[in-house]
């Protein structure tokens, strides 16, 4: 589906809505992926889907309906059902009409790669076959998923706004292991040309072989070197907590903290939709995205805010546009390790859960590589361990930052955090 066709469908859905306030959000998604495990391809699929969400309102009541058939007859049936639902609904105390006419939506440069939009199966098979061959050459087993996604979204409203966005995403996530020894990598970009799978395959194989004969770390206080993947694993839980309404209602760690210090001065978190981690130009209600600084030098500057709460509290509507950037410095993970006298290298975090959202305490596990660092060298493999951490406290003890790297939705650096007590529970 083209962006022009998506806009046409959205506009026709709004016309079918036939109410004072109507808006439509159209999503086309083609997902092509190859799954593999134990050095064998287990699945190869290529599917496409279209979803249309139509919202109708009369100024006090509203209803939404989702459907897939784009024919005029289907739209009329869906619109009629939506109107019936609306008429049977009580007044909505948080009713909001669509955004006013004249919304300006940013253009996201280089979000679409023509080759990736074709979802070429040759590229996926070549990458997966190369990973498997590398793993077999090192006596390891490889498993993971290689996916290629082409997405088109469009928004239309009875207030006169029209917008579309087209993007591609190539993601290769894989593990190589032998017994308890393993390593992992996730590669992501809009283009196949920027996926260095061959180089990464050999690096991961060597990392896995080095991760044998693990032992428990001795209790004490350490500097923790987080690889960019580990930083990207923890940031969503911080982002999910940055909601203005929940903060105003006293439900999060950010309650009453806007404009105040919440972390260390070396921690800055922002969103730049047209930056190195590509974002989206609008949300599903038609609100434009914009560059935003969430936390600057440890001070909370902004919180996400939906349109109703923004109108109620005098804020601007604001959302995280599917991208986050953490300010870094210069140097690779290896450079940061060389400067660390006594520490622990953490490659990846997983199974992360909230323990307490009001104080933002998280729990989780390490995975796919933990090493003791002595005198600038990662010498001894350690067993994976459970941790309980407060991300704002961790980022309040940053000792060093490296050069940011792309990790799906995020552009994040390797980070050295000092004074972390172990065990971490």
What's the gist of this structure?
The chain has 425 residues and is α+β, with helices and mostly antiparallel strands. 24% of the residues lie in helices and 36% in strands.
- Beta-strand level of the residues, as a percent range? 35-45%
> How many H/I helical runs?
10
The percent of residues in helical segments reads 10-25%
> For the report, how would you describe the main beta sheet?
6 strands, antiparallel
Q: Span between N and C termini?
A: 50 Å
Output mean pLDDT.
95
Describe the structure.
The chain has 425 residues and is of the alpha+beta class. The protein has helices at 3-17, 72-87, 114-117, 121-137, 197-210, 228-240, 244-248, 307-313, 333-338, 391-394; strands spanning 21-37, 40-57, 62-67, 141-157, 162-178, 181-189, 220-226, 269-271, 292-296, 299-300, 324-326, 342-346, 349-356, 361-366, 370-374, 377-381, 386-389, 398-401, 405-407, 410-412, 415-422. The strands form 4 sheets. A 6-stranded antiparallel sheet has the order 3-2-1-4-5-6. The protein has a 6-stranded mixed sheet with strand order 16-15-12-7-21-18. A hairpin with a 2-residue loop joins strand 19 and strand 20. Helix 1 crosses helix 2 (72-87) and helix 4 (121-137) packs parallel to helix 5 (197-210). It is globular, with a radius of gyration of 24 Å. The mean pLDDT is 95.
């Amino acid at each position: 589906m083209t962006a022009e066709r998506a806009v046409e469908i959205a506009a026709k859905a709004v016309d079918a809505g036939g109410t004072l306030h109507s808006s439509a959000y159209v999503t086309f998604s083609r997902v092509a992926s190859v799954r593999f495990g134990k050095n064998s391809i287990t699945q190869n699929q290529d599917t496409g889907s279209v979803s249309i969400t139509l919202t109708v309102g009369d100024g006090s009541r509203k209803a939404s309906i989702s459907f897939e058939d784009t024919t005029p007859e289907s739209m009329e049936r869906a619109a009629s059902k939506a109107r019936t639902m609306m008429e049977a609904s009580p007044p909505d105390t948080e009713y909001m009409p669509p955004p006013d006419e004249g919304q300006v939506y940013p253009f996201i440069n280089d979000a679409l790669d023509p080759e990736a939009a074709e979802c070429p199966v040759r590229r996926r098979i070549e990458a997966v076959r190369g990973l498997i061959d590398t793993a077999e050459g090192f006596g390891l087993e490889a498993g993971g998923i290689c996916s290629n996604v082409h997405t088109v979204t469009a928004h239309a409203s009875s207030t006169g706004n029209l917008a579309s966005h087209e993007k591609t995403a190539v993601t290769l996530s894989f593990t190589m292991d032998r017994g308890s020894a393993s390593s992992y990598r996730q590669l992501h970009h809009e283009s196949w040309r920027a996926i260095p799978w061959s180089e990464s395959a050999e690096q991961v194989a060597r990392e896995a072989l080095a991760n044998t004969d693990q032992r428990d770390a001795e209790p004490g206080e350490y500097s923790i070197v987080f690889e960019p993947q580990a930083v990207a694993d923890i940031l969503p839980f911080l982002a999910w907590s940055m909601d203005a309404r929940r903060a105003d209602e006293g439900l999060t760690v950010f309650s009453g903290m806007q404009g105040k210090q919440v972390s260390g001065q070396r921690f800055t978190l922002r969103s730049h939709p047209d930056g190195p981690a590509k974002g989206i130009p609008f949300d599903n209600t038609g609100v434009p995205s914009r560059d935003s600084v969430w936390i600057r030098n440890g001070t909370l500057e902004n919180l996400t805010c939906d349109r109703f709460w923004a109108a109620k509290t005098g804020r601007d509507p604001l959302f995280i546009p599917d991208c986050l950037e953490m300010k870094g410095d210069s140097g690779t993970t290896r450079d940061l390790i060389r400067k660390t006298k006594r520490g622990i290298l953490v490659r990846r975090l997983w199974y992360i859960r909230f323990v307490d959202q009001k104080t933002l305490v998280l729990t989780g596990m390490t995975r796919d590589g933990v090493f003791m660092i002595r005198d600038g060298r990662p010498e001894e493999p350690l067993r994976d361990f459970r941790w309980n951490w407060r991300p704002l406290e961790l980022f309040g003890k940053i000792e060093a930052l490296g050069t940011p790297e792309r990790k799906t939705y995020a552009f994040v650096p390797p980070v050295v955090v000092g004074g972390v007590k172990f065990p971490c529970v």
